[in-house]
């Protein structure tokens, strides 16, 4: 059941009836309003208010009853900016749940869009692999290619390539000039960043979960 608020005309009529001292029940029947509604206005008028001041107060309350913006604490904001600078995406921040953040993934993305946080370190869109045959032969692996014009078939690949772009490993660069030390540093960094596709675990955590204790001791 919907409720329609009193109009300015009704309030003026209630004020006129109030000055004539009829009962609340009688005014409620005349205006086809509940006795509780009329009683609230009567009580306001008895305190020295007027019909128009009652209406102005109602309009003010209505403006203040909307959805309030979500405000994150300084500690939460510092944590978000720190993790994003380390390569974490907003959905990973929420999904990993290492630190309580009082907002949803959608709200957090909107905060980045609204420039609440620095967007410089957010993951970028990825590019295609190059020299795929050489990579396949050298590492003895199969490489999957999506159908033309269907990037949705390789969303994880696009995302992963975007992460590498953030590490200054661009498609157009000459990788012959990239040192093995730098590549290993990038690999180490990315293997310690949680992934949504891995249920918010890091690649290293997933890898280690498949190893027996004896295998782990051999790695140390």
Please, could you describe this protein's structure?
This protein has twelve helices and no strands. Helix 1 packs across helix 3 and helix 1 crosses helix 4. The protein folds into four domains: 57 residues, no CATH class; 51 residues; 54 residues, no CATH class; 42 residues, no CATH class. The protein has 220 residues and is mainly α. About 2% of the residues have low confidence.
Would you kindly provide a brief summary of this structure?
With 220 residues, the chain is mainly alpha-helical. The chain folds into 4 domains: 8-64, no CATH class; 71-121; 123-176, no CATH class; 179-220, no CATH class. 55% of the residues lie in helices and 0% in strands.
Counting DSSP H or I runs of 4 or more residues, the number of helices is: 12
Number of separate structural domains:
4
Mean pLDDT: 80
- Through-space gap between termini: 69 Å
Radius of gyration: 32 Å
Strand content: under 5%
Order of helices and strands: HHHHHHHHHHHH
Please state the structural category: mainly alpha
Helical proportion, percent range: 55-70%
What's the story with the biggest beta sheet?
none
Kindly state the number of beta strands. Answer: 0
Organism: Enterococcus faecalis
GO molecular function: nucleic acid binding; transposase activity
GO biological process, one term: transposition
Protein name: IS30 family transposase
């Amino acid at each position: 059941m919907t409720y329609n608020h009193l109009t300015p005309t009704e309030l003026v009529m209630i004020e006129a009836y109030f000055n004539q001292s009829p009962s609340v029940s009688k005014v409620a029947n005349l205006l086809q309003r509940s006795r509780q509604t009329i009683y609230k206005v009567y009580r306001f008028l008895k305190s020295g208010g007027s019909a128009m001041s009652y209406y102005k107060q109602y309009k003010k309350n209505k403006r203040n009853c909307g959805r309030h913006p979500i405000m994150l604490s300084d500690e939460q904001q510092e944590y978000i900016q720190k993790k994003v600078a380390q390569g974490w995406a907003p959905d990973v921040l929420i999904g990993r749940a290492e630190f309580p953040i009082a907002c949803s993934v959608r709200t957090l993305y909107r905060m980045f869009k609204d420039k609440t946080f620095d967007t410089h370190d957010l993951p970028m869109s990825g590019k295609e692999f190059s020299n795929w045959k050489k990579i396949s032969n050298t590492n003895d692996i199969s490489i999957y290619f999506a159908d033309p014009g269907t990037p949705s078939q390789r969303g994880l690949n696009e995302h992963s390539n975007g992460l590498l772009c953030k590490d200054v490993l661009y498609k157009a660069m000459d990788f012959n000039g990239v040192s093995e030390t730098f590549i290993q540093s990038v690999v180490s960094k990315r293997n310690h960043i949680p992934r949504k596709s891995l249920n918010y675990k890091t690649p290293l955590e997933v890898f280690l979960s498949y190893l027996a204790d004896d295998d782990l001791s051999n790695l140390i």
